[in-house]
Amino acid sequence: MTKGVIFGATAAAIWGGMYVVSDVVLEVIPPFTLLLLRLILGTISLGIFVIGKPLPKLTVNTVISIIGVGIVGYAFSLGAQFVGTDLSTAINGAIVTSATPAFVILFAVIILREKLTTRRLLSVTLATIGVFIIIDFTQASFSSDTFVGNLFLGIAAITWGLYSVLIRWVSGKFLTLDTLYITLISFAGGLLLVIPASVIELQGTSINMSDITVGVIAGVLFLGVISTAVAFWLWNRAFALLEASTASLLFFVQPVSGALLGWIFLGQAMTLTTWIGGLFIAIGVLLSTSRKKPELLADN
């Protein structure tokens, strides 16, 4: 269990600074084109680790199943997230997508038949309260100007919850398949829809090459290599090792990570509310993970 918690918490910590980076890069590169770059960089980064390795035996059913999961997570969810962030704000993205763990638990009950226990409900409630304490709602905007963007962010939260549960499902169904290959194949599923979406998008949107600064390039590399290749492998591995309802709580590390990164790199103050919110999140996560050790999937 410890390994799964570390993997999931690290992925969420990486994503803690993603919304601000996305917000900046999206001023120059449109959403689906940025998502395309992200998936291409992620595929190349993970692909390096399979060079020279014997290919696993894959059936058509296996490939189709994992591609379908990739379409849900990387085409629908990430696409909706980028469009939502582009049409709304970074703070709105943090608020709306904080509902993701609740959707993970819901889909885990429906698809994986995990039990909806009082402990799990209390854990997600405490962690959600922590998020609401940390987030500065005065900076949020839920006016008509951001309605469409907020709607897309809601879709992103729902589909990411579904994706996370499906990752647990395919990891259990194909026990001999390494998480690295599951992640790579799922990236291919995302690319199936993101490539045509980017082509259509670029027909109506032009990128001003003079706006491509070193900072923008660094942002794209961060989103592609770190937030995609590294973080998605870690997240997928966490859901292979932990029950979905437990792993979902690790999503709440994001706002704590975002606050810490702002304190370290931007000199932003760590307020009392930030510490209190972080404490609520920590209690919620610990309450969820302090149960008896669950049955783990293959540690591939």
The best one-word shape is: globular
Separation, N- and C-terminal Cα atoms: 14 Å
Number of strands: 0
User: Which sheet architecture does the biggest sheet show?
Assistant: none
β content, as a range? under 5%
The H-and-E topology, N to C, reads as HHHHHHHHHHHHH
Helix content: over 70%
Radius of gyration over all CA atoms, rounded: 19 Å
**How many domains, in number, for the residues?**
1
Question: SS-based structural class?
Answer: mainly alpha
Number of helices: 13
The chain-level mean pLDDT equals 84
Unreliable residue runs: none
How does this model look, in words?
This protein is mainly α. It has one domain (about 1-290). It is about 75% helix and about 0% strand. It has 13 helices and no strands. The protein has helices at about 1-15, 20-25, 30-45, 60-85, 90-95, 100-110, 120-135, 145-175, 180-205, 215-240, 245-250, 255-265, 270-290. Helix 2 (about 20-25) packs across helix 5 and helix 12 packs antiparallel against helix 13 (about 270-290). The chain starts with a helix and ends in an 11-residue tail after the last helix. The model has no long low-confidence stretch (mean pLDDT about 85).
Please give a handful of descriptors for the protein shown.
300 residues; mainly alpha; 13 helices; 0% strand
SSE map:
Elements (H helix, E strand, L loop, with lengths): L1 H14 L2 H8 L5 H17 L12 H28 L2 H7 L3 H12 L6 H17 L12 H27 L5 H26 L9 H28 L2 H5 L4 H13 L6 H18 L11
